Structure prediction request, 288 residues.
Amino acid sequence: MPDSVFIAGPASWNTIVVLDRLPEPVPHMQFAEETWATVGGTSAGKALSLAGLGRATQLYALAGPDEEGDRVRAALDGAGVRVRWGQGTTERHLNLMTREGARVSLYLSSPDATTGEDDAWVRERMGEAGAIVLDLAAEPRRLLPVARETGVPIWVDVHDYDGEAEFHRPFLAAADAVFCNADRLADPVAFLHSRIAAGASLAVCTLGAEGAVAVDAEGIEYRVAAVPVEVIDTNGAGDAFLAGVLDARLDGAGVGAALEAGARTAATVLRTRHLHPLLDAAVGSAGE
Prediction:
């Protein structure tokens, strides 16, 4: 369907640990304020938010035949997310968080790229979509040439890119729309303009509680404020923001209106300790 979205990338099983401050790099002891297990992964987050918005979405992710993989599969199925599961190691994270949203993500396991067993199916689904989202992982990186061959617009999220990391560069080179956050960029707006100059038609940087800034194909800058909300957990807010913008753009919204839609969508996931409220019931049953 021309208004559907194809997403390739991580869906993981995460342990969340909330601390009063992030650990210092010295031997010491801290007590957790709260801890829980839930679905993680940037692609799972985007697929959940798009599903919550009613957008037809196909997620392609990798997971193994183990307990954590079973939990991820069951939770996303229970949340109504359509997933094609390729074979690989189940991704697992340990996220150390503060109430203010600071985070250290420890990757406990991560799948390698496949040898292309699902490529015929992937190519067909990509070609049917209105947009392709490729997230930072080995398998989506391998699929970049396949996506480019379809001619379908490619959206990428480079998260806390520092402007130099080599792994991110093929994603940036392929992108029609680039999303990032400001955590490691000295000048986020300059970076957005550089992506437009390199050929992207939209570049967006999220600024946490300060909202987001974007630059369109004509070099015009846009800003949107964050929607005020009582924050329970910040995991997945950036993914939800991208999902809201993409959903609005596929419906024909201008950049300013799409950013407002992204801010509203991000606010919906800040109210839950899961990636999306759709998981509130699904994770409980998946973890039993």
Notes: The two ends are 36 Å apart (CA to CA). Residues 38 and 158 are 23 Å apart (CA to CA).
